[in-house]
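User: Please predict structures.

Assistant: First:
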Amino acid sequence: MIGFLRGKLVAKTPPLLVLDVQGVGYEVEAPMTTFYNLPTMGETVQLHTHLVVREDAHILFGFSTESDRLMFRTLIKVNGVGPKLALTILSGQTADEFHRCIQDNDTAALIRLPGVGKKTAERLIIEMRDKLPTLDTASTDKAQGEQGNEQAPRSNAKQEAISALCALGYKPQDASKMVQGIAQEDKSCEDIIRLALQGKAR
């Protein structure tokens, strides 16, 4: 099991990033909460990782905080929730927002996330409620390098954001609608995704 990776950030295309660890490039899938906190390209970053082994692939998932990894591991134990859906949930809501949904039995907010239907939302609330105390620190630890997202040309930021939202499970037309009203200005891809997901949650 690979517990963590520390290396140079050489590529980031949400939800995939690449770390150069002593000359070896590790592809890591990460939630948007981790992307928001990444340092600039070329700088060193450490990620807590979880390895998923399938018949056709070994997939590394990375998280900026230990508590995010704990929530991911707790989510994938819920019946019907796989790693991709867990990544989408962690991207679409902060830990605090997710906690409130569980505590308030707010299935409507959960259903707004792609891939989460009514039955899955109800299952999440039932199975996660008793596990919440172990996740209370989820929003307390901060990642290194919260600012300084260095992005490719800004003209591509919206298109990259749409592609990232599609990779997280949103339909192309929905992803386009989510970002079309956001003033681009000097926003990075991550900034646009953050605003799009916040708008979707309201």
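Second:
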Amino acid sequence: MPYAALDDDSSILTVSRLNAQIKSLLESSFPLVWVKGEISNFRAPSSGHYYFTLKDERSQINAVFFRFQNRRLRFKPDSGIQVLCQARVGVYEPRGEYQLIVEVMEPLGIGALQLAFEQLKKKLAAEGLFDPSRKRRMPLCPRNVAVVTSPSGAAVRDILKIFRRSPYPLSVTILPVAVQGSEAGREIAAALDAVHELNERFQWDVIIVGRGGGSIEDLWPFNEEIPARAIASCPVPVISAVGHEIDLTISDLAADLRMPTPTAAAEWVVRSVEHFHRETCTARDRLVQIMIRAVENRKTMLRFLEKRLPDPKRRFQDLHLYVDDRTQRLQLAISRRIEKAGTLTAHLAEKLRFLHPSRKIAQHRQTLSQYMKDLVLFQRRSLEVRRMLLGNCISRLETLSPLAVLSRGYSITYRLPGMKLLKRSSEVRAGNEVLVRLSEGSIVCTVSQTEEKSS
């Protein structure tokens, strides 16, 4: 009877209790550990949580990275990436599975920011955001400039210093934003999005987006996706001037023109304006010389034509005589045409009087009056005939009416129920009820006796 003894032993555990004890033991023994390995079977469902397997050459373990923790990542995890994770060991009791609950993740070998930079660069390049054919042409003479940068940084001071040196007037609008910190990328994107509404008022020729140099962390707002897409969709050509000459950001790749520093961007604007004015002045001088030579050539040709031109007075006199002759002939032709038209008008008026429709109208009126009289007479005769036919029909109907027969003392008998018309005595039996319809009213009777038709 050993099995009965086991059934009564209180040390036997249920599956749920065993999983709970395992969960308590593991989570207390491994509260927080660092684990490195390769990501595989990576999944990112709509919930925002990351599910994957962390493995090395000999073993693997399931892991989860919850949304409220992974949203601070600078890069996008994917299968095949070597990572270092700070995690807690947890047990999912319903299935008795243990897993890593990741709280911190860093890529191995390459920094998280550099990996995020390469991932975003690859993604936007695949969408064609960096395609040279998409970039807008820079203006020849950018005189109205908007600068998206920090209002207190060194970049805006350098830009304004260069603009003040320009011999030509420049209009500068500062769109103040933060260029460092977690919210800087959104502020830069919001300023560029505002250009869609403000450009109709300010008519900017070019937008300069930039800041001074710094570490990759300081320049990171210019490596985010939101400002890059705002630069690409901006209606005004954008110059990216971020950091130093060796720095390259996503904003540099998305912009229509990249300058190594904010100072270089301002110098490009000043040089473009100066070059435009020089070219304009050169073209103006060249045009003046061409016009002077053209005028001299026309003067020479005019003097040559003056020598060959006959006296215009004689030509004018001939034309005057020609006009007088044509005027007299025109007046004579008009007079004859008027006379001919008058004769024709008189002839047509006489013909119109002869064909005037008043006589035909009188004739048709007499005919119409006669037709009306005939129609009234016909209607009267037809009505009398119809009345006679109606009287005959009424007489015939009264003769054939069963009511007339009933009025002479006859009756109609029906069997109840059902109101079946009786024609023979055999159709009822003693005790049946019948309805006898008279000329006026009806009688319900009970049959007491039936007789066959007698001779």
